[in-house]
Amino acid sequence: MVRQNYPIKNELNAKRIKWGNPQNYISWAYMKELRENNRTRKIYEMNPYVEVYQFRDNLYGLFTQNCDGAGDVWMYLIVGPEKALLIDTAFGLGDLKGLAEKLSGGKEVIVFNTHGHVDHAYGNCRFDRVYCHEFEVPSLEEQNGHMFDYLFDENGDNIWLQFDKEDLPKFKKYEIVGVPDGYVFCLGGDYEVEVCWLGGHVSGNAGILDRKNRIFFPGDDLCSDISGVGGGPKPGVKNGQYMNVQTFRDNLAKVVARLDEIDYVFPSHFIVNVESGVLESELEACDEILKDPDCYDYKAFSISPKGGAPTERYFKYIKGFSVLAYTMEGVYPPKEEGERGTEPK
């Protein structure tokens, strides 16, 4: 019997049918308190699928339910003097573009994907242009008119989340712009946000550093539930040689070296506004895995909402926060793309 978390009272249009996996107790308790009691929470008539939270004077968290059975999602909007940056687009339920434009006060909205996974990038077709790290371009190019099919059963009924199908975006091609590590978006005046390539979770997972607010957005490379950073290369996935703990660790170390520029971290799922020291704890967990991949605290099998064979994953505690997940093929970079990762000699 799969246990159920206590329901979170909310007024969103979508209603949960079922989860793919039980939700983390601590993350769920945090989200229940935030969603039921935060005084800044608003739902705008133009998009009843998104709860908007004002975390800073110019920073909004856009919370939306995951259309499949995985964890619910945060998008973020940073409003600068002249332009705004929208971090991720989730599944694009409702008028996401209109909501972002309203919150920005009519300023131009730049869209950036931390990575191309379904729950972060399927709303891209609401927009004409989307930026991402250059290694993630192939993932976005694979989107097509059938990408939402897995959300429904053979009768066309919703599987995980009940919502009006007409509120999903209609697929269209859009311009994809890949940018390198260190790329800077200027939001007006001296307001700059920087792309920080991380890899790990996927080849092109990239964080955003909001220099003014001293906030780092790591995408899915840090999460209060499971930080999956070492899945290893997958057949047919380009740039898969960067989906490992070693690559992520080396890039994370560069971010940790700049902690004097970062006060808080806002992951893309569950607990947010975390003190930046958590990044040091995650780096320590990576180092322990690289020293001895068998030092895991526990192991378990996981199944993707899209199906397929179960994956055996290993879990190492990130002190004071969550766990880091990896496979044995995803510890070290492969000798060549597609080969099993091997420890450097």
UniProtKB/TrEMBL annotation:
It comes from the Bacteria. InterPro entries: Metallo-B-lactamas (IPR001279), NDM-1-like (IPR050855), RibonucZ/Hydroxyglut_hydro (IPR036866). Residues 72-269 form the Metallo-beta-lactamase domain. Keywords: Hydrolase. GO terms for molecular function: hydrolase activity. The keyword Hydrolase applies. PANTHER family: METALLO BETA-LACTAMASE SUPERFAMILY LIPOPROTEIN, METALLO-BETA-LACTAMASE DOMAIN-CONTAINING. This is MBL fold metallo-hydrolase.
